[in-house]
Structure formats: structure tokens, C-alpha cells
Amino acid sequence: MTSPRKTSPLRVALALALAALAAPACVSKPTMQLDHAEITGIRIAFPPSLGILMTVVVNVYNPNSYDVAVRAVRGQVVLAGRYMLPVDFRADGDGVWLPSDRTTPVRVPIHMPVDLGFQLVRESFSSPVIPYRFSGRADVTATRTFRLEADDYSVDDHGVVARHQIEAALGVMR
């Protein structure tokens, strides 16, 4: 006759530790939705270049029971249906941390060449807004403790930017 096997405290602790490690591995996909874009100023860079700084604000909902961080956003913005600007945002430090079960705005800066700003203002003289499409992917880190990384959380949405914002930025440069 065999006796029931006793579970040692060490075995229980090991099982709990493995369960804790496995739980964050199932990262629920954050949802990303375009909120708006704004012209936030001009950008002077080295080597000498001058541009308009456009910021696209994306609302990211984190459905997980733990915080996640957006480390990077890559993609493109297409202005007026034909002018493509690359997006390559890398967050400082550990990324932009998103609290659990909340929506957090993530600000993604985009550099617009001055000549494109002038072109857009000329072409849109009869409209107060310039349409754009933002499509991209985000790299996310799940939990501060375990640093599980997942890539390719996507966004693809349309919006408009006010023409007068671009005119104001260009007016500063005159």
C-alpha cells in the first residue's frame, strides 16, 4: 500500500514562483486609437536643418492587470493622401509606462520638413484642415518586474491637423 505523498514547502514555493512567471507571459493586447495631431513648434537640428514638429497623440488602453510600457513606435504618417513622413519614436529610459486597466495618451513626435509645410499650406488654402493617416506598430514591455517584451501592436487611423497650426509654425520662421 502506498502512502499519500507529502508536499514540501519548497515544492509549493517553486510551483507558486512558476505560476507567477507564467501569468504575465499572456499579455493582453493593448488597443491603440488615434486621438489627434498638433503642431508643437519648430525643430532645429544638427547637421543644420529646420523643420516643423508635429505630435500625434495616440490613446493606448492597457487591459492587463499590470502595467505595460511602450518602448517604441514605428510607422508612417501620410499627409493630404500623398506626403509620407516616417515615424521612428524611441521612448526614453524604460519607455512610457501605461497603468493597468486605463487609457493613457502617448505623444509621438514627427519631423515635417519646412518645404513640405509650405507645400501643404499652399495646397490646402480652401480647407481649414489637412487630412492625415497614421499607421504604425508599437513595441511593448509587460510588467516592470519580468520585462517580457512583445512587438507589433498596431494602429491604423485617420485624422486631421489644422492648417492654421502649420501656418503659425511657418510664420515663426519668416
Task: Give the tally of β-strands.
Answer: 8
General shape:
elongated
Distance between the termini: 94 Å
Overall structural class, as computed from helix and strand content, comes to alpha+beta
Helix content: 10-25%
Q: How much is the radius of gyration in Å? A: 23 Å
Beta-strand portion reads: over 45%
SSE run: HEEEEEEHEEH
Low-confidence stretches: 12-25
Give an overview in words:
- It is a single chain.
- This protein is of the alpha+beta class and 174 residues long.
- 20% of the residues lie in helices and 53% in strands.
- The protein has three helices and eight strands, in the order H-E-E-E-E-E-E-H-E-E-H.
- The chain has helices spanning 9-22, 114-123, 163-172; strands at residues 31-45, 49-62, 68-79, 83-90, 96-98, 102-113, 129-142, 148-162.
- The strands form two sheets. Strands 3, 4, 5, 7 and 8 form a five-stranded antiparallel beta sheet that branches. A three-stranded antiparallel beta sheet has the order 1-2-6.
- Strand 1 (31-45) and strand 2 (49-62) form a beta hairpin.
- The model is unreliable at 12-25 (pLDDT under 50).
Task: Summarize, please.
With 174 residues, the protein is an alpha+beta fold. It has helices spanning 9-22, 114-123, 163-172; strands spanning 31-45, 49-62, 68-79, 83-90, 96-98, 102-113, 129-142, 148-162. It has 3 helices and 8 strands.
